[in-house]
Amino acid sequence: MMKVLIADDHHVVRRGLLFFLKTQKDIEVVGEAVNGKEAVEMAAKLRPDIVLMDLVMPVMDGIQATRKIKEKSPEIIVLMLTSFSDRDHVVPAIEAGAAGYQLKDIEPDELVESLRSLMRGENTLHPKATSELMKGPSQPAPHTVNFLTPREKEVLAELTKGKSNREIASALYVTEKTVKTHISNIFTKLEVQDRTQAALYAVKHGLTEAGME
Q1: 111 has which bridge partners?
Q2: Residues 40, 97: contact at Cβ < 8 Å?
Q3: From CA 16, how far away is CA 120, in angstroms rounded?
Q4: Residue 9 to residue 6: CA distance in whole angstroms
Q5: 211 pLDDT more than 60
Q6: Which of 155, 158, 163 is nearest to 120 (CA)?
Q7: Which domains does the chain have, with CATH numbers?
Q8: Most CB atoms closer than 10 Å: which of 111, 123, 157, 163?
């Protein structure tokens, strides 16, 4: 069972999410938080697999809450679910540690698939969020990028497209085990925690496929 904590200050939103998620056989909603501070406290106590986090909340916002949750429990996955798709909200959320970013207009079935994708270790970003990331100007790549091998750069470029390990393996004609090894090395070299942060890093520093040509 996937254990999910819902954090949103709107009662109607929480009720709607709870109603739908409870119909999924592989998901258990373990709690509901009404603000960021409560989300941090409940995450520490309930140890959910995923926190479904609103961005704008009283007492403590979703970005602050995400940062605190990841500091205390790096293994807990945070999926941001919000109405804001602009770069000024997307980038800080990912930098704080959110592994996924979806908008509240997402279809229920797509939201559930996003949760399952995150449990598989994949990144999940709403197309509008991805578009906003791509609009950002590239910064000079830091020296650490030079430590990436040509193959690791290829894997990073494919990862940035949101591809799964299997899809990357197919595209590069290598095994999934090899892809996992490359991704682990990329995380270590770039000092990032997950695929979403690695993708953001690649976009910011022009390491997407186009940026490396």
Answers
A1: none
A2: no
A3: 25
A4: 10
A5: no
A6: 163
A7: 2-134 (3.40.50.2300), 137-212 (1.10.10.10)
A8: 123
The residue among 178, 123, 125 whose CA lies nearest residue 152 is: 178
Which stretches does DSSP call E strand in the chain? 2-7, 27-33, 50-53, 77-82, 100-103, 124-125
pLDDT digits (tens, 9 = 90+) for 116-160: 989 988 778 777 776 666 666 555 555 556 688 889 988 988 888
Contact (Cβ atoms closer than 8 angstroms) between residue 25 and residue 53: no
3-state DSSP call for residue 207? coil
Residue of 58, 55, 33, 60 whose CA lies nearest to 44: 33
Contact 11, 37 (CB under 8 A): no
Cα–Cα distance between 183 and 19 in angstroms, integer? 36
CB 37 within 8 A of CB 65: yes
Q: What is the pLDDT of residue 132?
A: 67
Q: Identify residue 203 by its one-letter amino acid code.
A: V
